[in-house]
């Protein structure tokens, strides 16, 4: 399986090639705490936090270039909750905000701040 180096999976059923990468929108993380500080990237356990591209409007099969890698959106993903690692604050995903599971089409290095481009 190709995914992120040293990335773990809490449940065995999450360990699958079409679930090698998880993506979530920065804009949705901001909605988990509307009256306070926004939840930081990684709060729902996503590998990649995307800003400026509405993942909810993309179709299954859409490919994205991220850094040197290329990934393909495979299945919508509904995180159960968000946890702010800095404050310990947790919120249930009551509105059922969705992200995506993705497979790796072309492996490569991804770094914080890399541009995410819809292909």
UniProtKB/TrEMBL annotation:
SUPFAM superfamilies xref list: PK beta-barrel domain-like (SSF50800)
InterPro entries reported in the protein's UniProt record: Benzoxazolinone_Detox_Enz, MoCF_Sase_C, Pyrv_Knase-like_insert_dom_sf
A single MF term (Gene Ontology): molybdenum ion binding
PROSITE patterns tied to this protein: MOSC
Domain MOSC: 1-119
Superkingdom classification of source: Bacteria
Name assigned to this protein: 6-N-hydroxylaminopurine resistance protein
């Amino acid at each position: 399986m190709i995914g992120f180096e040293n990335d773990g999976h809490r449940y065995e059923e999450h360990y699958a090639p079409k679930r090698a990468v998880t993506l979530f929108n920065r804009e949705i993380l901001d909605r988990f705490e509307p009256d306070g500080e926004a939840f930081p990237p990684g709060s729902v356990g996503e590998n990649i936090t995307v800003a400026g591209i509405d993942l909810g409007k993309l179709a299954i099969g859409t490919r994205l270039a991220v850094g040197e890698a290329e990934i393909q959106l495979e299945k919508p993903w509904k995180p159960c909750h968000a946890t702010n690692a800095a404050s310990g604050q947790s919120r249930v995903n009551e509105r059922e905000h969705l992200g995506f599971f993705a497979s790796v089409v072309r492996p490569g290095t991804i770094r914080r701040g890399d541009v995410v481009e819809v292909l």
